[in-house]
Recover the amino acids of this structure.
């Protein structure tokens, strides 16, 4: 399968490649980045490799997935953003995680908005979700900027998460409030 590439004003969302391992392992080994992802623990280099392989496999199994995010100006791989729905998930999720040095520049919102457009237009979804730990104020702000509304609290990986969502009509009418 060919993984599509999406370009925004400052980012390229593209398939992960072996060349991304150093940057991705750096991100996944950072306790601050990983505290709200999965079980909340950093990943080793080997676990980061398996995570990249899992994301590529998701593309092949579902036809969509998380992209590696490249900053256009530097060519640096700065994180992962995209569409995600592992087995048992409550809906197609727009998810994001960035290397810490790239926080605060609006990259998560920019990449997530492009992923939402892809989810609605290319995947024909009528509703998209984001699952965010209650204490993750930065991601909650991103969800708000994307026009997502908090719907309920659920348990993911044995921890509480807030389910945010937006439907196609609201996205088309309001879009992002960047």
């Amino acid at each position: 399968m060919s993984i599509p590439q999406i370009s925004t004003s400052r980012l390229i969302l593209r398939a992960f490649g072996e060349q991304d391992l150093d940057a991705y392992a750096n991100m996944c080994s950072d306790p601050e980045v990983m505290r709200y992802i999965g079980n909340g623990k950093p990943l080793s280099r080997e676990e980061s490799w398996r995570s990249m392989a899992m994301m590529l496999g998701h593309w092949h199994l579902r036809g969509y997935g998380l992209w590696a995010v490249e900053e256009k100006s530097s060519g640096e791989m700065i994180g992962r953003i995209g569409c995600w729905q592992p087995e048992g998930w409550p809906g197609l999720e727009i998810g994001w995680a960035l290397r810490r040095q790239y926080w605060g520049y609006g990259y998560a919102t920019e990449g997530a908005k492009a992923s939402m457009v892809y989810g609605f237009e290319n995947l024909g979804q009528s509703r998209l979700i984001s699952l965010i730990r209650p204490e993750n104020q930065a991601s909650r702000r991103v969800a708000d900027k994307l026009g997502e509304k908090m719907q309920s609290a659920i348990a993911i990986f044995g921890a509480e998460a807030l389910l945010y969502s937006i439907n196609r009509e609201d996205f088309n009418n309001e879009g992002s409030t960047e």
